[in-house]
Design goal:
heterodimer; A: 301 residues; mainly beta; six-stranded antiparallel sheet; 3% helix; globular; B: 136 residues; little secondary structure; 2 domains; two-stranded antiparallel sheet; two-stranded antiparallel ribbon; 2 helices; elongated
C-alpha cells in the first residue's frame, strides 16, 4: 500500500497509525575493542537478548511473534509499515562514537564450531520468511560464546538471490579482532576480519557483512562453512541472514542522534510484518557496560 | 522520469522504489596516504565489496565466481601441492620436474579482459609454463 502523498502519511499518523518503541541495551561487561562490530541482539537489556538457540547447524527462523526483538507493533497487511524516525544516544561516554545499523534478522545457523577445520554442512528445512528471493539479504558471523583467540579465514557456500547454488565468498576473509595482541573476545562479537584500529589489517578484511561473489546481490540460504585453521579454543558462532534497513550514529554522551527517514533521508524503509528487529553496532572506542538508549518510530498505511 | 512532486516521491519510496547498499572500505595497509592526494579505494583498500587484487588488477577484472584465491577450488594432478600462504593467495608448488597441469572451472564474462599472474620461485633446472584457456 504505502502512502499516496505527504498529506496521506500525515493523515495516517493523525489517525493513530503510528507507534513509538523504546530500546535500552548494555554493551558487554568485558572490554569491547574499538573498531569492531557487535550484535546488540546478544546484549542484555530491552528487548531481551537473543541467544541463537536451535538445532546444531540447522536453519532457524526469526520472527517477532515467536522470538521477540524490538517491538514495532502488530501486523498491518495489507497496509505496509515504514520507519519514520530512529533515535539513539548513550548515557556513558565510553560508548561513543558509535554507529548502528537496524536490521531485520531473518534466519540463523547456530552452533558453528570455530575450532574445527572440517566442512560444517547446514540443513535448510525452512526458507527465509521475509525478502524470500534473498534480494538485499546479507550475512554476518557472530560469536555466541567466548570468541576464538587465533586469526582465521573462512569459506562459505551459499545460494544467491537468483537461486544459483554453489556460490562462495569472493575470498576467504580473515577473522580477527581489532587490537593487538589478540585477546579472547565475548559473545556478540561479529567476525569482521579486523578493523581500522587493528594491526591485522589486510586487503581481505570485509566489515560487518560477509562479501558476496562478484555479481551477487543477496542470499537465499547457506549450505556450508569451513575454517582454514582452528580458532584456538572451542567457540561457537552463528551465521545470521538479515536485511539492513537504516542507520543512525551518535558521538557524544546524552546527545541524542535522530534520523528522520522522511524529512532528512526520504526513503521510509519498510518493516515487514513479523520482522525481528535489532541493531548491529560499530564501536569507535573501547566500551565496558555502556548503555545505549533509543527509540523507533513507525507509521503504516 | 524523475519525480513530478514531493507527493510522487512519497508514493515511490513508500511503495519500495528504494535501494540500500552497505559498504566498507579500508585505506591501504601498505603505506600511509598522502595528504592532499586522491586515492582509488576500489583497488587500494580491502573491504566489502571485494577490492581488485593487488597483483591481478581490479576494476571488473575479477573472475565472476571469484574463487581463484581459494585453494579448495583447484583441481590438481597428483604431483601438485597446493597451499595457502599468509597473504591469502593461492600458491602452487610443483615438486618434481614433469609435465603436469592444474585447472579450475570458472565462468568467464564475454568482453572482459582477464590477467593471469604467476611467480616462479625456488626453481632449478629449466622448463616452461603454458597457460590455456578453454572449455565447452
Amino acid at each position: 500500500m504505502g502512502f499516496s502523498s505527504v498529506k496521506d502519511m500525515v493523515d495516517k499518523m493523525e489517525a493513530g497509525q503510528t507507534l513509538t518503541s523504546f530500546f535500552r541495551k548494555h554493551t558487554s561487561q568485558q572490554s569491547e575493542w574499538a573498531g569492531n562490530w557487535y550484535d546488540t541482539a546478544s546484549y542484555r537489556g530491552m528487548p531481551l537478548p537473543l541467544i541463537y538457540y536451535g538445532t546444531d547447524l540447522e536453519a532457524t527462523l526469526l520472527n517477532y511473534r515467536s522470538v521477540g526483538g524490538l517491538y514495532h507493533g502488530e501486523n498491518v497487511a495489507p497496509a505496509t509499515k515504514h520507519i519514520y524516525k530512529v533515535s539513539a544516544f548513550s548515557s556513558t561516554s565510553n560508548a561513543n562514537p558509535c554507529h548502528l545499523i537496524l536490521c531485520d534478522y531473518l534466519m540463523f545457523y547456530p552452533e558453528i564450531e570455530t575450532n574445527s577445520i572440517a566442512v560444517q554442512n547446514f540443513t535448510n528445512p525452512v526458507t527465509i520468511p521475509r525478502y524470500t528471493t534473498g534480494e538485499g539479504v546479507k550475512a554476518f558471523l557472530v560469536y555466541t560464546s567466548e570468541a576464538g583467540i587465533l586469526p582465521q579465514k573462512v569459506r562459505v557456500t551459499y545460494t544467491n538471490s537468483q537461486g544459483v547454488t554453489g556460490r562462495c565468498l569472493g575470498r576467504m576473509p580473515a577473522i580477527t579482532m581489532a587490537g593487538s595482541p589478540l585477546v579472547p573476545g565475548i559473545p556478540g562479537l561479529i567476525m569482521t576480519g579486523g578493523a581500522w584500529s587493528g594491526t591485522l589489517q589486510a586487503p581481505h578484511n570485509h566489515g560487518v557483512f560477509l562479501p558476496l561473489a562478484e555479481g551477487d546481490t543477496g542470499i537465499q540460504s547457506v549450505q556450508n562453512i569451513q575454517f582454514n585453521t582452528p580458532s584456538g579454543i572451542s567457540s561457537q558462532a552463528a551465521l545470521v541472514l538479515c536485511k539492513p534497513l537504516c542507520s543512525v550514529a551518535f558521538n557524544n554522551a546524552f546527545a541524542m542522534s535522530e534520523r528522520n527517514y522522511w524529512m532528512h533521508l526520504p526513503s521510509l524503509p519498510r518493516v515487514m510484518d513479523g520482522a525481528y528487529l535489532a541493531f548491529l553496532r560499530y564501536g569507535g572506542s573501547a566500551s565496558v557496560g555502556s548503555l545505549i538508549w533509543g527509540q523507533l518510530d513507525v507509521v503504516w498505511g | 522520469m524523475g519525480f513530478t512532486s514531493l507527493d510522487d516521491l512519497m508514493r515511490k519510496v513508500s511503495s519500495g522504489n528504494t535501494y540500500r547498499c552497505d559498504w566498507q572500505r579500508m585505506t591501504p595497509d601498505f603505506g600511509a596516504g598522502v595528504v592532499g592526494s586522491w586515492a582509488d579505494s576500489y583497488v587500494a583498500g580491502g573491504g566489502n565489496p571485494i577490492a581488485g587484487h593487488g597483483t591481478m588488477g581490479g576494476h571488473g577484472n575479477i573472475v565472476k565466481n571469484a574463487t581463484l584465491e581459494s585453494y579448495n577450488d583447484w583441481n590438481p594432478s597428483p604431483d601438485w601441492t597446493i597451499y595457502d600462504d599468509i597473504n591469502n593467495y593461492t600458491a602452487l608448488r610443483h615438486p618434481i620436474g614433469q609435465t603436469s597441469s592444474i585447472w579450475q572451472t570458472i565462468p568467464l564474462i564475454s568482453g572482459v579482459s582477464y590477467t593471469i599472474s604467476y611467480v616462479l620461485a625456488n626453481t632449478s633446472g629449466s622448463g616452461s609454463i603454458t597457460l590455456d584457456l578453454g572449455g565447452t
